[in-house]
Amino acid sequence: MLLPLYHTYVFSGQLLQLRHLGSLLQENREILQGAASVQDEVKRLETILEANKAEVLSIGAFMPPYQDLPGLIVGFWNLIEEHELKSKQLFMGDEVEKPRYSYYTVHFSVLGKTENVYAFLEDLERYPRKLGFAELLLVALEEDTLQAELQLEVYMLGQKEEEHK
Fold this sequence. Notes:
Layout: H1 2-62, H2 69-82, E1 90-97, E2 101-113, H3 114-125, E3 131-142, E4 145-157, H4 161-164
Antiparallel strand pairs: 1-2, 2-4, 3-4
């Protein structure tokens, strides 16, 4: 007689509580499994972030946030002399601003032996600053003489030169 009352008032309440605790335990296990997968994803994203930081630093090495016109002009003239070419003038264009970078144009022409002009153009492609060939016109003047008319774009990161100083 006591057993049915005990079962009704004590055991059934405890069984309901145990079932509820069991469902809460299952929910918490699922949450922990989700947290573990999120933690793995965070580690993966941190690895990608570190790789991107290194890439940004390498971009900054050849695409500085300032013009450095004197250094650029000296570098171009040194290349021209190194390849035994002739050039009269070098014209700098206005700066063109884009959302994350800017560039300015440089116009000049070189004249010399064909192989020297080609070697000069190859060295421009490997120049330590980020350059783009906007225009390139090659004109054969004599059998072994070539003139190259160039318009280059010199790229800079988004910060202005005044901010760099």
